[in-house]
Amino acid sequence: MTSPSVSSTSRNSGTSTELPRRLGLWSAIAVLVGTTIGSGIFRSPAGIADKLPGPLPLMAVWVTGGIFALCGALTLAELAGAMPRTGGYFVYIREAWGRLPAFLYGWSELTLIRAAALGGISTTFAEYLLRGLGYNPALAPYDTYAHWIAAATVALMAVINVVGLKWGALVQNFTTVAKYGGLMLIILLALILGLPQTGGHFTPAMPPGSFSVSAFGLALVSVLWAFDGWGDLSKVAGEVKDPEKTLPKAIVLGTLSIIFIYLLANIAYLSVLSVDEIRGARLVAADVAEKLIGPIGVTLVAITVLLSTFGSVNGSLLTGPRIFFAMADDGLFFKKVAAVHPTFKTPYVAILLTATIAIAFVLVRTFEQLADIFVTASLVFYILSIGAVFKLRQRPDWNPPVRTPWYPLVPALFCLATLFLLVNALMDDAQRVPTLGVFGVILLGVPVYYLTVGRRASRP
User: Fold this and answer.
1) Beta-carbon count within 10 A of 93 CB
2) 25-455 topology per CATH
3) At how many degrees (to 10) do helices 367-386 and 429-451 cross?
4) Average pLDDT of 375-388?
5) Dist. CA 167–CA 174, nearest whole Å
6) Which pLDDT tens digit goes with each residue over 167-207?
7) What residue ranges are annotated as transmembrane (predicted)?
């Protein structure tokens, strides 16, 4: 195993492609929280309530998602602390399973995962912007306008992140505080004003037909979309100060804060709206606020969601391109992608490449299509990256600064739950074809690898 390094240095060219360490603990937490709280908590509850139309199943799936995310975060803390290098999952998969699986992860991030994530988040930004301006994003021509606004948002955030990590981190810090505070304000209004009026909509807890294992699994996929982001900090690990201490703390503290506010948000939604109302609430937070304090509530929520999704797009463009940077630096992608801007000291080619593909996705796909693509493709590599701890612990020189508590139960639970979700998606008639399509794109990376970088690596 390569020992942890404080910078990324090309193995092929011998030239330094160094990204300076400028993220402290609070900025690191802001990256994690800001990347995670994006569109999911504001957009996913309707689809989840449609699959699980009962208060108890609805809350149970969010609790399950929180446990799932925490198991992953606790394991990731060990991996990130031991290997604080740019690229995150790419590094762990490469060190544990080899170059081909690492390439497939980067290939999937390039062709599916990162573009779908940016597209889904920026689409929610565009829809709430139109709603806040008084237009219905579900109706023509505003449904088309939403795609173009989303594309422009991605382009703007790409420019900010090219200009420098400092500016990207400032945007992330500000929007994280604003979105967390705004979401907490919505929660307090619901609990203080809404709950006394309605008494809540928590009974009957589990109406007939409100739960099935298959539906729970599909709903959990949507919950994971909302929770995803707990691993993104690892992708900028090469730019975190004192990483052996900072990364584990930021990953665990950030994930716990996400679980806390997500559970409160769902309690708040149920305090104001019935499950049937949530099922029909495409923009649920706006509907809650409008019912509580009228049109001003829609404006309040629109501002909160705009800041939330804006920050999440920024966080995704701050973290995701570092994967392609690390790949190129390792000889698994075009060398130019590992270029560091001479003035701004950012991986500008990787950022621009990521943004370009995301813009193409957002112009031709809906939010639901983008979210499903993202989660399905991510699940495969969750297993490989978190499962890497089993392989790496067999090495005699493995000495991480922190170790996963309750090992091997925690990473095993995470991997088994992820495998269940994949199998469940394949067994569902509506999800089988899209899931197989995602797998097909991932496997297409195998011949691409052997026709390109794999063939070069095999030469004497």
Assistant:
1) 24
2) Amino acid/polyamine transporter I (1.20.1740)
3) 60
4) 90
5) 11
6) 767 777 788 888 888 889 999 999 999 998 888 899 999 99
7) 23-42, 62-81, 102-125, 145-165, 177-197, 209-230, 250-272, 292-313, 348-367, 373-392, 404-427, 433-452
Domain edges within the chain: 25-455
Provide the 8-state DSSP code for 191.
I
Phi, psi torsion values for 16, nearest 5 degrees: -80, 130
User: Taking Cα atoms as reference points, which of 237, 351, 242 lies closest to residue 8?
Assistant: 237
Contacts of 37 (CB under 8 A, 6+ apart): 176, 179, 180, 183, 229, 258, 261, 308, 311, 312
Reference 19, options 346, 446, 264, 410; nearest CA is: 346
Model confidence at 71, pLDDT cuts 50, 70, 90, reads: very high
d(CA 342, CA 457): 29
Question: What secondary structure does DSSP assign to 421-443, as a single string?
Answer: HHHHHHHSHHHHHHHHHHHHHHH
Share of the chain above pLDDT 70, in %: 93
The model's pTM is 0.82
414 vs 430, which has greater pLDDT? Answer: 414
DSSP structure string for 100-168: HHHHHHHHHIIIIIHHHHHHHHHHHHHHHHHHHTT--TTSTTHHHHHHHHHHHHHHHHHHHHHH-HHHH
